[in-house]
């Protein structure tokens, strides 16, 4: 039996040092989507596709304090934020594994593929990483190129660089 779909999703707009974040939670306060206002149409289309019967209302999220703490400097503040994402079993495995990368550390796409037991699936890991609907909490920004370079991030490379520096990643990796 498929998991029950939320009836109502709450959208909260949170000002951050790198733009206004969009937090979408369900009735239980579980994060279902995260993005930035400059990607709002894309996120709303994703929500309509994955939660077609849900009503979206704007209100303050119960998760807001955790995000405020994170952006104020507590890099571990999002570690306990509950999330649920709609994805394939492979995507879910990649996203769960992303959560094993601690703040202040990075992992290459190859390293991530190896960590999930699929060392030849580097491109598939990259695609799953890019499809992550709950960014920052599921820290896709902590994945970098094998040579240590910054590579794609759905929120844009300047945000990825800021997030990594904010979490204490050495400057030469974030530059």
What does this structure look like?
The protein has a four-stranded mixed sheet with strand order 3-2-1-4. The protein has seven helices and six strands; from the N terminus they run E-E-E-H-E-H-H-E-H-H-E-H-H. Helix 4 crosses helix 5. Helix content is 34%, strand content 17%. The mean pLDDT is 92. The protein has two domains: 64 residues, Double Stranded RNA Binding Domain (2-Layer Sandwich); 86 residues, Arc Repressor Mutant, subunit A, CATH 1.10.10. With 175 residues, it is an alpha/beta fold.
Question: Helix and strand layout, with pairings?
Answer:
Layout lengths: L7 E9 L2 E7 L5 E6 L3 H11 L4 E4 L5 H8 L17 H10 L8 E2 H7 L6 H9 L12 E2 L12 H10 L4 H4 L1
The CATH architecture classification of the largest domain is Orthogonal Bundle
What best-fitting shape do the alpha-carbon axes yield?
globular
Distance between the termini: 47 Å
Which structural class fits the helix and strand makeup? alpha/beta
Order of helices and strands: EEEHEHHEHHEHH
Concise overview:
With 175 residues, the chain is α/β, with parallel strands linked by helices. 34% of the residues lie in helices and 17% in strands. It has seven helices and six strands; from the N terminus they run E-E-E-H-E-H-H-E-H-H-E-H-H.
């Amino acid at each position: 039996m498929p998991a029950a779909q939320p009836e109502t999703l709450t959208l909260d707009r949170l000002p951050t040092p790198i733009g206004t974040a969009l937090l979408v939670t369900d009735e239980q306060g579980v994060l279902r989507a995260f993005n930035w206002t400059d990607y709002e149409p894309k996120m709303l289309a994703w929500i309509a596709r994955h939660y077609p019967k849900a009503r979206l209302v704007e209100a303050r999220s119960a998760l807001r304090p955790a995000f405020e703490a994170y952006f104020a400097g507590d890099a571990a503040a999002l570690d306990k934020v509950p999330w649920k994402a709609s994805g394939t079993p492979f995507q879910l495995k990649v996203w769960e594994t992303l959560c094993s990368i601690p703040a202040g550390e990075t992992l290459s796409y190859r390293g991530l593929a190896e960590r999930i037991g699929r060392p030849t699936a580097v491109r598939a890991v990259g695609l799953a990483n890019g499809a992550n609907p709950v960014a920052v909490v599921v820290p896709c920004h902590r994945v970098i190129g094998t040579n240590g370079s910054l590579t794609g991030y759905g929120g844009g490379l300047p945000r990825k660089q800021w997030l990594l520096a904010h979490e204490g990643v050495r400057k030469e990796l974030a530059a």
